Give the backbone structure.
Amino acid sequence: MITKATLKDVSALNQLINSAYRGETSKKGWTTEANLLEGLRTTEQELTETIQDKKNTILKFTQNEQIIGCVLLIEKEQQLYLGMLTVSPDLQNSGIGKQLLHQAETQALALGLPKIVMTVISVREELIAWYKRNGYQDTGAREPFPASHAHSAIAKEPLEFIVLEKKIESHIQS
């Protein structure tokens, strides 16, 4: 079931997101960043601040009362920004990510926003290909990868973000 996350979910979300993106547990899934970055993907403080901001929504995918997936949606001008799409490493390739993407599109429609945009680290070719198979297109725009105290790059090549977008139709096909 996909519902809106609340402050009660912060600890579980933090654990899920960090386990899917960084460290040894993330290597069970295909979306890991463990070979590119060290440190945390997010913190409980960041997630608390994110949930408290009215322009943000974190959707959680719950099964047997466990949060096994999530996605961050941010209302920005005439678009919905999608970030931190996360599925538990043990459950990747089971359709949960697609369901979360579909729900993001439903949310964009409900808000009257014509497109969804996201940034993906440019060297994550398999992930970029997955988004393209799900209707996202490379806009050609690039953004620098931010320096952070929470994580540090360990990749040999320089990191940057590519900007992907999907125009939202007035009717969503499932």
